[in-house]
Amino acid sequence: MTMPGTKMYIVTISELIQAIQKQPLVLAFSPAAAKFMSNISGASAEAHKILMNNVNGHEGDWGLTMEPYASIRATLAPGPALDEMNRTMIQTVAASLDALKPLSGRRGMIKLGKWLVDNVTAATANSVYGPQHPFKDENVEAGFWHFENDLMAFLAGLFPSITARKGVAGRERLVKAFEHYFQSEAYKHASPFVRDGYEIGVNNGLSIQDIARYELGKTLAALVNTPSTIFWMLLFIYSHPELLQDIRK
Q: Which of 11, 34, 196, 218 has minimal Cβ neighbours within 10 Å of its Cβ?
């Protein structure tokens, strides 16, 4: 598939997929992921250079690309750290559900899609980034979703400053919020996942500004898929009365 300034190859034949996967040094994922992250985040050229250093791990498990893997395995593995994140998320969701209770004798109505986006964002952000997370600001949250909505324009390099103005503005709002988050040391009250990520960035020579920009990758991974997945799950449940009745029991 020809795209502006590049080409995209889509492999659908299982034999070819297996052959590609057997050539990790020739067709490696990490360099492509690093380029993608630098492009969408607007990171500096110096930050991208740091990110590409030992990008495939040929020289060992060190560097800005390789070191996070060990941190992810340690902090997101079953254990106290993950339990605490799950506990925080459940408590936030429970409080949101309690707030839905209408006044006695009345019926309430919500826009389910928007409610899920807002509350999944809040629950995830509380769990991952702690009580002083940037998404408490509604403008920052809205900016993130504008950024996510225009992600393909960033990925394709289709002059995002022109074709994705809302996305660019939203990204910059989020970056500024994360800069303040790290400068004020609010990250010290976050999950070990975030604290470790910050220390890895500092130890590899990233500036606060570029740490904030690369943090966008974590927010995309943590937030994007969950609201839509829950929405379709709820739609499925409510479309099957017998299943809904069983769950309510």
A: 11
